[in-house]
Amino acid sequence: MTQLTLNPNTLAFLENKPLAFFSNGEWLRSGQSIDVVDPATNQAVTQIAMAQPQDMNDAVSHAEVAFKSWGATAPAKRQALLQKLASLIRRDEDILAELESIDVGKPKAEATGFDVPFAADSYDYFATLAVEAQYEVELGLKVTDSHTVKKPYGVAAFVFPWNFPFTLCAWGIAPALAAGNTVVIKPASETPLSTLYLAKLAEEAGFPKGVINVLPGSGSVAGEALISDSRIKLMSFTGSTAVGRHIGEVCGRNLVPAKLELGGKGAAIICSDADVDAAVEGLTGAITLNAGQVCCTASRWYIHDDIYDEFVAKAKVAFESIVLGRGLTESAQMGPICTEKQLAKIFECIGDAQAHGATIVTGGVRPSDESLSDGNYITPTLLAGADDNPWAIEEIFGPVSFLLKFNDEQEVIERANRNLYGLANSVWSQDLAKAKVLAHQLVGGNSWINAHNVFEYGLHYGACNKSGCGGGVNSKATFEGYLRHQSVAAVR
Ligand code: NAD
């Protein structure tokens, strides 16, 4: 920690340990705390207080009370507060990017280039939708004089994963708040820092107490208490398919609608007429972004036989040129894996892929650079093998791509669609008309052309099958999903 050159404001924030959680406008600490570890060193950077079931229970009670006025607040007031929050995020971009870098391990430039500004944009985007929305719609029916009123649900609960804490939180809570719901957030206990900082900014922005509550805690204790609270009116979960299934079951029992944004195993279809250099660059960037810990990344690459050798040779060079390093160093293009546990899992997957016949084209080892030996580093990895290899099918969640060959475009679409995940796929071809046809045929929430990991507010980002259900994020439909419809009718 002492060797770090951090913004003094970042240091001041970390020093107040254990960092308290934020409930009903108060900063609270319960009896338990844990270390927050920098994945580049495996040293503690601070401690956080861990919320307990009673804390979650209290937070839901406060959020219920706060909803009575927040749900009735004029949209223009909600807009102003969300815009204020967005401007404070932009003001403190450097601090937030540093927190994201030492917590998740990502290059700071990635956080300043994407995570933080894109999160700020989310609050602005949904703030605008709050005032543009039609909350009362006349139906013009024959028998009844009737209209639909759209109302917020009440307390919305959010459970987030460790890979994009700040951005995913914004994608989740911005539409919920804009629509008039109050929120109780459980960030991952591995990466809670930027969400706690967000609570600080929300307090500064002037959100009424109880509207935004942030309580890190363990999944099985604090998380379980939150998801099983029958007073929550909406559940939004982002994380693994296994935990999502459990949360869906619990919410089903309570009849609480659940939005589940889950894992993926994205396919990239690289046609014989693809621009090989652009595809190599785009896909190398996609699988090394956030050290491959990206749900929607392309982790199985189907390459046409005609260009396979050229593509793989160029991809090998590109992978071997990626500069690994601590996120805070300017040269780092890829940081460490977020946790030691996840690093061990990635090595295990690679070993098992080999045991099932895959070969390593490059990577799959710890870097030789001694200065990186304390961190959770792995070199970007290309595996080659067959469709039935378990790691051509299952999510690894690291910088590992699985190479597969194809000859026929229709046949490869069928092969790609056999996978039960349905998050994001891409098609690479210089024939745009053909690429669009193939993109339509791929089953998933998102089909991108000549790019991978494409986000823009207004462009719906969702999923199907094992990758999730219940909505998606980033569009007008997301905002509408946080409003319930109520019919009001008088017989003429
Ligand atoms: P995870 O499912 O292990 O944990 C996610 C969150 O759930 C954490 O906050 C954890 O504490 C909590 N949790 C665990 N058990 C719980 C329980 N019983 N009750 C309530 N909460 C519980 O996922 P992870 O390892 O943190 O994140 C990686 C996964 O997230 C990957 O599968 C990735 O694909 C997925 N993900 C999906 C998206 C998307 O938009 N579809 C985005 C990011 C990550």
Automatic annotation (TrEMBL):
Keywords: Oxidoreductase
Gene3D superfamilies: Aldehyde Dehydrogenase, Chain A, domain 1, Aldehyde Dehydrogenase, Chain A, domain 2
Residues of the Aldehyde dehydrogenase domain: 30-488
Superkingdom of the organism of origin: Bacteria
Classification via InterPro entries: Ald_DH/histidinol_DH (IPR016161), Ald_DH_C (IPR016163), Ald_DH_N (IPR016162), Aldehyde_DH_dom (IPR015590)
Pfam family, one: Aldedh
Annotated protein name in UniProt: Aldehyde dehydrogenase
Species of the source: Vibrio ulleungensis
